[in-house]
Amino acid sequence: VYSFGQHVSRRNLVTEYRRLPLRPCALAERQFYLRFELKDQPGVLAKITAMLGRHGVSVERIEQQLLQSRRAMLVVLTHTCAEGRLQRAVKAIALLPPVIGCRALIRVGI
Prior knowledge:
Layout: E1 2-3, E2 6-7, H1 10-19, E3 29-39, H2 44-54, E4 59-66, E5 71-78, E6 81-82, H3 83-94, E7 99-108
Antiparallel strand pairs: 1-2, 3-5, 3-6, 3-7, 4-5
Helix pairs in contact: 2-3
């Protein structure tokens, strides 16, 4: 294994990585893709975006797709935010009466 032009044994490379401090996932900053299934009612979008804002999560893009039986799928792409803030927001949103559930939470990028 070469590191910056110098030969480094695999054992030394593993030791060096072990010395690096681990950062909790809750502090990791990245974008997220969210998909919520919800009842198609007036004011639902306002409640969801208000809850995201209350937790410090900014929305980059949002799209609503109508489903059968007066339901809708809401797709949200966030701006970069801490995963912990997003997780707390999603838990709070899942408790809202018109929300059926969070169907996807995907980290975007590295």
